[in-house]
Design brief:
The structure is a single chain. The protein is 36% helix and 18% strand. The protein is of the alpha/beta class. It has six domains: 106 residues, Glutaminyl-tRNA synthetase, non-specific RNA binding region part 1, domain 1 (Helicase, Ruva Protein, domain 3, Orthogonal Bundle); 62 residues, Arc Repressor Mutant, subunit A; 147 residues, HUPs (Rossmann fold), CATH 3.40.50; 101 residues, Glutamyl-tRNA Synthetase, domain 3, CATH 3.90.800.10; 155 residues, Ribosomal Protein L25, Chain P; 111 residues, Ribosomal Protein L25, Chain P (Beta Barrel), CATH 2.40.240.10. The strands form eight sheets. The protein has a seven-stranded mixed sheet with strand order 12-26-27-28-24-25-13, covered by helices on one side. The chain has a six-stranded mixed sheet with strand order 17-14-22-21-20-23, with no helix packed on it. β20 and β21 form a beta hairpin.
């Protein structure tokens, strides 16, 4: 009775308080939270605080995490549902011992004060943005757009105050509603525009007009559900990037990330990062972390990070409802019996609802072996697959929910319902998911929930590579590559390690564009985008890969001279770095020939050459050889450039250099399509290019690279673009060649 009184006192209705008491875990957590809050305050909590405590306790089932949040709720740091949602999400995505309070408070808007003046000014600016449409449509204008715009700019503003201000300013602008405003707008049939590909669909897919989309299934409840959806979203475009956390993202995912996040950004919308974590056997923490890092590396910030597992309780309840509606049933057919096209109907398809409900509950309680029972949905998909599985048994601890569940939903069941929960407006997916579109619409409509629209587009493939997890694991096991981030692969971690700028990958995706047709591109198109970016962003340095020692016998100083080298020779306003120029320098062996040849413009015994950036011209006086008659050193003299005839060429050099390791990469595979085919009869493992990596253990670089950090990028003059590898140490710097300075015609 004491607990009942406590829960009633904090604002729960008598019925809600009694329901809470039935759940021992929840009631225990809530009681502790209230006691902690009252100990902090020194008095009883008010109803507003009590409601927040209840919502926090229902969503954070760990007492330590809840105790962390209670401190902020009690002191009014977290004082709204908006802040609570942000706080719970933050806590779920961070270990408690790793939470930075400053970062937490910033992400949750703690301490942020939105004044009435700010709301007034922002609403005024937003009204002015849409004023022409408002004046034209008057009160038929979708005011949700105004709300959405203001909330985007003032994330932590009180929604009620914002709405009141919007209503007030619109009233001041338009005056009271007239009889014409109150009349229902007559529906006029629209001529159906021709559709040709995804672009046409996008242009005609206004949020709220989903029911007009070709193939979209309209039910008696569709319009009501869409109206509620619009009230929640304010007409805002919502997309999501839904990767499975069972592998590393690759170049194809970069297109999906750009399309989902980019489409939302271009339409002032939002994009969720939602992990499809429904298969605990294959999911690992490193994949969750790696996916998020790559999304952020490409320059995108998710509106919210969610997981399919966030909705496991909700999805289970919906599965029960689906059984009750006679749209799902418990089935004992084995997996191999229901694979492929047009499998035989299940003999359990028409079993009584009560039997399926009981069996489904027993599945959840762990009363069957894996594969002994599944829950299947009653529909036939486009590809002929009959009654796809909605739930299967897996006795594997889940990354986030531990041993709470032994049944897990499938993609076909989970994906559309998660989209519905998050009020996604554009479910963007690659062409192979077109066969699942009917099940997507069917399931939302079978449960009478908001149904988003699925749009398909062609996936992006590259030649000379493989991207499947299974094949990359085989490459690692065979020793052909070091790991998932080996720079010869086209995973995003590998491309970052090699030195590909994220901007270049985004530019490449933009150039490829979005079409319904599948696209297979040559790598040189991506490399061209990389050169375009690095040419403007990678500072120059001098590097000698095959050094030849040169001693300048008449060097004009007893001490090394300081030479200023422009970071970007085409724009010297972007700064310089200083390198030493001393009596001993090193040049490339290829920049010297003993015997003059026609057309050769660099250093010979008869032909001088300029030294870049020094103002000196070098002339050979003596050639020194070893016992095998190989040239090992030159003795030379130098003269000021203005005192001699202009040389035919200027070469790069280093002095007092830094010794580094360089890794030069070529394509990993010999053929364009290294999959099993007539071109590669032995499969992709037989198509490895033996020269895909060349190691230069002791290249000589100018001292400007000494302070470089991993992933810093340089153009080594006349050599190529390079990036510092994370393998580097203070004693040994390692550089990966990102791309050559120019495209190699031999690769075409």
């Amino acid at each position: 009775m004491a607990a009942l009184a406590l829960f009633s006192r904090i604002g729960l209705s008598e019925q809600k308080a009694k329901e809470t008491l039935k759940n021992e875990a929840l009631s225990g957590l809530l009681a502790q939270a209230v006691e902690q809050a009252e100990a902090i305050l020194g008095c009883a909590v008010d109803r507003c605080t009590g409601t927040l405590l209840y919502n926090a306790a229902t969503r954070l089932k760990d007492q330590q995490h809840l105790a962390f949040l209670v401190k902020y709720i009690a002191t009014k740091g977290v004082g709204s549902d908006l802040q609570l949602n942000a706080a719970v999400e933050y806590i779920k995505n961070h270990r408690l011992d790793s939470i930075d309070s400053t970062d937490f408070e910033r992400e949750c808007g703690i301490g942020v004060v939105v004044t009435p003046e700010q709301i007034e000014e922002t609403v005024e600016a937003t009204v002015n943005k849409y004023i022409n449409n408002i004046m034209l449509e008057r009160y038929r204008f979708n005011m949700g757009l105004l709300m959405g715009d203001v909330r985007t700019k003032l994330k932590w503003a009180d929604g009620k105050i914002v709405k009141n201000e919007v209503d007030l300013q619109v009233l001041n602008l338009l005056g009271p509603k007239t009889e014409a405003d109150l009349e229902k707008k007559a529906k006029t049939p629209k001529e159906k525009a021709p559709r040709s590909g995804l672009k046409d669909k996008e242009e005609g897919s206004n949020n709220g007009e989903n029911f007009k989309t070709e193939g979209y299934v309209v039910t008696d409840n569709t319009m009501e559900l869409l109206q509620k959806h619009l009230e929640i979203t304010g007409g805002q475009v919502r997309t999501r990037f839904p990767p499975e956390p069972n592998g590393i993202l690759h170049i194809g995912h970069a297109k999906a990330i750009n399309f989902n996040f980019g489409y939302a950004r271009a339409n002032d919308g939002i994009c969720f990062l939602r992990y499809d974590d429904t298969n605990p056997e294959k999911e690992e923490e490193k994949y969750f972390q790696g996916i998020r890092e790559m999304v952020e590396w490409l320059g995108y910030t998710p509106y919210k990070i969610t997981h399919a597992s966030d909705y496991f309780d909700h999805l289970y309840d919906w599965a029960v409802e689906l059984i009750k509606r006679r749209q799902a049933y418990a089935c004992h057919q084995k997996v191999e019996e229901i694979k492929g096209h047009n499998p035989p109907p299940s003999p359990w398809r028409d079993r009584p609802v009560e039997d399926s409900l009981l069996l489904f509950q027993q599945m959840r309680k762990g009363m069957f072996a894996e594969g002994e029972v599944t829950l299947r949905m009653k529909l036939i998909m486009e590809d002929g697959k009959m009654d796809p599985v909605a739930y299967r048994i897996k006795y594997t601890a889940h990354h986030r929910t531990g041993d709470q569940w032994c049944i897990y939903p499938t993609y076909d069941y989970t994906h559309c319902l998660c989209d519905s929960i998050e009020h996604i407006t554009h479910s963007l997916c690659t062409k192979e998911f077109q066969a699942r579109r009917s099940s997507y619409y069917w399931l939302c409509n079978a449960l009478d929930v908001y149904c988003p629209v699925q749009w398909e587009y062609g996936r992006l493939n590259l030649q000379y590579t493989v991207v499947s997890k299974r094949k990359i694991i085989k490459l690692v096991e065979a020793g052909a590559v070091r790991d998932w981030d080996d720079p010869r692969l086209f995973t995003l971690t590998a491309l970052r390690r090699r030195g590909f700028p994220s901007e270049a990958i985004n530019n490449f995706c933009a150039k490829v564009g979005v079409t319904v047709a599948q696209t297979t591109m040559a790598p040189h198109l991506l490399e061209s985008c990389v050169r375009d970016v690095l040419n403007d962003t990678a500072p120059r340095a001098m590097a000698v890969l095959e050094p030849l020692r040169v001693t300048i016998t008449n060097f004009p100083s007893n001490q090394p001279l300081e030479v200023s080298v422009p970071n970007f020779p085409a724009d010297e306003s972007r700064g310089f770095h200083v390198v030493p120029f001393s009596r001993t320098i090193y040049i490339e062996q290829a920049d010297f020939r003993e015997v003059m040849e026609k057309g050769y413009k660099r250093l010979t015994c008869e032909q001088p050459v300029g030294l870049r950036h020094t103002g000196y011209v070098l002339s050979v006086q003596r050639v020194i050889r070893d016992n095998d008659r190989k040239v090992t050193e030159l003795e030379a003299t130098c003269k000021k450039s203005e005192s001699v005839e202009k040389p035919k060429a200027f070469i790069h050099w280093v002095s007092n250099p830094v010794t580094c390791e360089l890794r030069l990469y070529e394509r990993l595979f010999i053929h364009k399509c290294p999959e099993d085919s007539a071109e590669v009869p032995g499969g992709f493992l037989s198509d490895i290019n033996p020269s895909s990596m060349q190691l230069i253990p002791a290249a000589l670089l100018d001292v400007s690279v000494r302070a470089a950090r991993p992933f810093d990028k340089f153009q080594f003059e006349r050599v190529g673009y390079f990036s510092l590898d994370p393998d580097s140490t203070e004693q040994r710097l390692v550089f990966n060649r990102t791309v050559t300075l120019k495209e190699d015609p031999g690769k075409m």
